[in-house]
Amino acid sequence: MNKILSIFYIFSLFVFIVFGIYEEEIGKRDWSIQNIGQYENSLYFPYDDTILVHSKLLNKIDNTQDTTSTSHVISLLNSSTGRQRWRQLLPIQEQTFQTLTFNSFDNDHFLTLTNNKMIRYWNRNNGELLWNYDTSLEVEGNCNVADIINKDGIIRILCDQAILFIKREKQVVVLSNIKNEENNGDQLKSLNLQSVYSISKKDDVKEIKFIEFDSKFKISTIKNQKLSNPIQSNQLIINENQLINKQILVILTSSSNLDIINFDNNNNNPKIFNTNLKKILPDNDNSLEIKSISSISNNNQFIIVLSNGNHLLVEFNIETNSLELVKSIKRTNIIKTSSSSSSSSTTTTTTLTTKSIMSSSIYLISGNEIDEEKNNIGEYSIEIVNGGLIGSEKLSSISKKFNGYIEKVNSFNGYILISMSDWSIHMFKLNGAAIESLWSREESLSFILSTEIIDYPLPDISKLAQLQYEFNETDGFFTHFSKRISTQLADIFGFNKQQQQQQQQQQQQQQQQQQQQQKQPKINVPNEENEQIKKIIIVTTKSGKVLGLNSKDGNVLWSILYLNFNDESNLMKIYITKKTVYESPEVAIIFPLKEKPKSFISFINPLDGKERHVRIINHKLLHANVLSQWSDPITHAQMMYWVINYPVDHPSPMVTLYPWNDKTRKQWSRLKQYYFYLIDHQSQQIKGYGIESLADGKHGGIKSIPTWNIQFSGNGVKIIGASSMNPHEIIQSPAIIMGNRDLLPKYINRNMITIATLDDQSVLTITLIDSITGEIIKSFKHQHSSNKISLVQTENSVVYSHYDIMSQTQLISSIDIFERNIDWKTDTVSSFNSTTATSSGQLSDQLIIKHKSFVFVHGLIKTLSLSITDKGITSKHILVGLSNGQILPIDKKFINARRPYPSEVTPNDAEEQLIPYKPILQFPPWFFTTYNSTVVGLTTITSTGTDLESTSLVFAYGQPDIFCVLITPSLPYDILSDQFNHISLIVTSVTLLVLAFVAKNYKNSLLLSKKWK
């Protein structure tokens, strides 16, 4: 019994320890955002106030190209708050989405049709997939529509040459492959629960066909009726030219004719009524045409969009079978319309709204153009139509400047959901005659292109500027002393003009910010009271939007939208041109414009997202970089250069130095010590360049000169990856102390790049190249490799992951490079005069290159990165991102290429604490920083240091999720947690001191009594 109790106590102790670690770590040092992607359509459920949203994701196919694939997401959101209840990502192989449907027979389940064949039946409450069915098992061709048609749960599927009926509970085909010989492959569409229709064309005459079914799901009647003439070719397939509700079907047959089918008449025989624009507008001079029709309501009202931009609100009278004009809206700035009962060709909806005025409302949304001079940010307004115009309200939370153009509008039961071209989703609610903004989702974060992390400035930056003024490096001792005395006296007597000017500037900036905040959407602006904000994460997105995120919780601090961004490209890079020290920081955003081949450079303040100045490049941009060791003496910004394709396809592209002024012009020759290289993925070659001469002294144009060229050819070789040193990495130790106390110098070459190539024989080649001289340092080959590879460099090491398709194993390989002999008194800063180079010029002869490969058993590796700390003292960790969304930091010692084989371990190796080599890498579950969460679609991991050397900030993103966490690679040796109990520490220390004093006296008394005995 005692043994059982002991085992139980020990087990409980371990459980409590694990639970305590879980409570301590989960959510305390990390946060994540689960996005749903680009909005497509939605269904509303009033009884629990939720919306079922269908959205799409764009996924990168290859990092070397701009190609993307499409996948789809289903999610359930709270209509009032926008919070996500659940989310389901459909397989990435299914790139098309046809139907999202439900009806009043079953409110707790819904149906999807994807890839023109895959039927899925879901539980709406928790997102559970109940069953799926592949229609290609029964019929050939595509299936386009699926809906539930009765209380028995019969699902009707409309395909190209057949109609399927399936019982949803048992997944049994009731009646399949009902071929229609006269259909001629025309697409069938759902008319109501008993009928379907299709539109066909014979001998330039188009007709509509109605197919009805009996209770046994057999075709009972087929009715053909001709549509009006003339009919424009292929016009009927456009979604804006067909409208349907519970009573009528409206078809735009030409630029001036409408056919209205009344299928809700008493004799159950659909009738076609033709009308002409002349009947609606008798005074029409034949110059006006119908551009499109949209937004049909339950009371048979809909909108006609005219060629001149004006809109007509019309109503079809069922009793008189005539189309009547309700309202003529003569404005050309209306850009979107919506109605509470509107539907589309990709979604079958059933109206669940209560009987109210909102169920028959039509909404017109208009917008203004951006006018910077008049401070017009392109505001949008909405007008509500219900038998006439009843009100107009501004949509204050969206604008063209900050959100772009309106893409889609859905309305239901007083809610209005608007998706913008910046991928954001906004929900509004109609309260009487007022429009209330409920919530918004920043879905542009579902496709991040690049990221940078900067420090947030200290609260009082003026003191740092004052210290910089007092202790200028160019001044002598007496100058420092006099400046110090003068500033102290000025502080005492209040004569510090500099501080007064700064205070006035700050007040002016605050007033300007308040004025602009009244016109902008509300964002979370950090202030001095929030001392926990340490970093700002800057991200660029495929929608053309740049956002600044709070590193503490992921809140959006600011955002800026570039409407001229070429979204066909996956290129929008960030360069830090001025860090936060004494001056306010600055970053450059570079991206291609829609007007090819031009590019755009925007210099912004990353603290508030305000644009300072811009630069347009009229030629194709090939390369850009920041010269970290050269700053502009006037603006204190780091010098920047970019390479353009000018003259076009010339072997020596033009280099532009920025900023360009009189002082930088005098120092332009400093650029000759810099080199750059370009990778051409089409010709599979790498070219190195140097600086030759000044070509354009007015605009900073400098001529380059080719220095080396490496061509990868043979057996269909392709460049699949490239890496270089992380510019933010700090290297503390230039050598390793071995077990015998000798120094092993590291080969630290920040100019070394790593190129991965793959040929037709699945041979992976890793090539180490000096990017200054073009010399190949070393090459390694791996047989039977796939094209999934990731590279990362740190100090003197290269770590890469690759997959062996023959053995079906994931591998991690490590290359460590050391120097044999080195003169510690020589400062080697150039690849041309390296102390390790021999007379023959073979650099590799004087290098010690170690290589080891390890089997990684935790799954497929998606990406590799490096943990960065502020001073580089903490041990380096390789951040491994897995395809399942997990992130695993691996200490470099576990993948050290110097790990000796067990039979070759020496006492010096043991003294150095080198781990004997084992081919398999396996780590416990608590090593993963993501714990029980996953980063869906993980693509990239980036890291930066914090104020604490032991702590590193890790930011990971994919399509669509993002994740941020603080990690301590060498444990938190320089930090006490916020929950640390100082009182307990003091009480414990005092108690131990008292006990030690009591024990000492007790010991002395025992010794004394022993001696008396």
CA radius of gyration is 35 Å
Measured between the Cα atoms of the first and last residue, the distance is 46 Å
Structural class: mainly beta
Helix content: 10-25%
Count of DSSP-assigned helices: 9
3D architecture notes:
Helices cover 12% and strands 43% of the residues. It has 1013 residues and is mainly beta. The strands form 17 sheets. The protein has a 6-stranded antiparallel sheet with strand order 44-45-46-49-48-47, with no helix packed on it. It has a 5-stranded mixed sheet with strand order 56-57-58-59-63, with no helix packed on it. It is globular. Mean pLDDT is 80; it is low at 230-239, 342-358, 513-533 and 835-840.
Could you write a compact summary of the structure shown?
The protein is mostly beta strands and about 1000 residues long. It is about 10% helix and about 45% strand.
Layout of helices and strands, plus pairs?
Blueprint: H1 2-25, E1 30-33, E2 38-45, E3 50-60, E4 68-78, E5 84-89, E6 97-103, E7 106-114, E8 118-123, E9 129-134, E10 143-148, E11 154-159, E12 163-167, E13 172-175, E14 188-190, E15 195-202, E16 205-213, E17 219-226, E18 242-244, E19 248-252, E20 257-262, E21 271-276, H2 277-280, E22 290-294, E23 301-306, E24 311-317, E25 322-329, E26 334-339, E27 362-367, E28 370-371, E29 376-377, E30 379-385, E31 389-399, H3 400-403, E32 406-412, E33 415-420, E34 424-431, E35 434-442, E36 448-455, H4 461-470, H5 477-493, H6 497-519, E37 535-541, E38 545-550, E39 556-561, E40 573-578, E41 586-592, E42 599-605, E43 610-617, E44 621-631, E45 638-644, E46 654-658, H7 662-666, E47 676-680, E48 685-696, E49 701-711, E50 718-723, E51 735-737, E52 743-745, E53 752-758, E54 764-770, E55 776-782, E56 790-794, E57 797-804, E58 809-819, E59 847-856, E60 861-866, E61 877-882, E62 887-891, H8 907-912, E63 920-921, E64 938-945, E65 952-958, E66 962-967, H9 982-1012
Parallel strand pairs: 59-63
Antiparallel strand pairs: 1-66, 2-3, 3-4, 4-5, 6-7, 7-8, 8-9, 10-11, 11-12, 12-13, 14-15, 15-16, 16-17, 18-19, 19-20, 20-21, 22-23, 23-24, 24-25, 26-27, 27-30, 28-29, 30-31, 32-33, 33-34, 34-35, 36-37, 37-38, 38-39, 40-41, 41-42, 42-43, 44-45, 45-46, 46-49, 47-48, 48-49, 50-53, 51-52, 53-54, ...
